[in-house]
Design a protein that fits this description.
globular; alpha/beta; 53% helix; Rossmann fold; 11% strand
Length: 207
């Protein structure tokens, strides 16, 4: 396999983003997260601020999980259409970037329902990183200045949004293990052993 892409979905506080970064750094490959928004902006000509604004609007929508707008390949809305800058089309542009990356290079893609966007790609390994609520809270408190109660609410709200976002664009449940190749408990393994598990899985599957 010429290029292998690892997608990371993660609970807040589980260290999934850090694990993805560690894996990418060990292999000397790029990793993508919020920079996908900038790339999609450059691709579409739509201001990056609009991507950010749409994300914020979705976070505050009580109806996000109750509605679906399942991503379909090639379902782009052309410039000039009133829906060109809709949430659906902004997701479409990010998905286009994700697919291009998967076709051209080895990399790590964090979030953005990338596992679903790339579900038909044979060179993709999808990973879900999770841990106990206590572990996630402890790790989140190490890098945030909130009170414990505030942090707990923030974690719950963030994971609720991630689940709703995933459901909206995929029609699937975010925490369903069947969506992923690997589900790793970072609280039991630690970050480095999670990286080693990803590498071991790839070796068995592709070599």
């Amino acid at each position: 396999m010429d290029n292998i892409v690892v997608t990371i979905a993660r609970q807040y506080g589980s260290g999934g983003k850090t694990i993805g970064q560690m894996y990418a750094e060990e292999l000397g490959i790029p990793w993508y997260d919020l920079n996908l928004t900038k790339m999609a902006s450059d691709e579409s000509g739509i201001k990056e601020e609009l991507f950010v604004q749409v994300d914020e609007k979705l976070k505050n929508s009580p109806f996000l999980r109750l509605t679906t707008n399942i991503y379909k390949d090639g379902d782009m809305i052309p410039p000039g259409s009133k829906d060109f800058v809709s949430a659906k089309n902004l997701f479409n542009y990010q998905a286009r970037i994700i697919k291009r990356l998967a076709e051209t290079e080895s990399c790590v893609i964090i979030g953005r329902a990338a596992d679903y966007v790339l579900k038909d790609y044979p060179n993709v390994v999808s990973v879900f990183v999770h841990a106990s609520p206590e572990y996630n809270l402890q790790k989140a408190m190490e890098v945030n200045s909130m009170s414990e109660a505030e942090m707990q609410k923030f974690i719950e709200a963030t994971d609720k949004y991630r689940a709703a976002y995933y459901k909206h664009y995929t029609g699937r449940e975010w925490t369903d293990a069947r969506n992923y190749d690997l589900c790793l408990n970072s609280g039991k393994l630690g970050f480095q052993k999670c990286v080693e598990e990803i590498k071991a899985y790839i070796k068995v599957r592709f070599e």
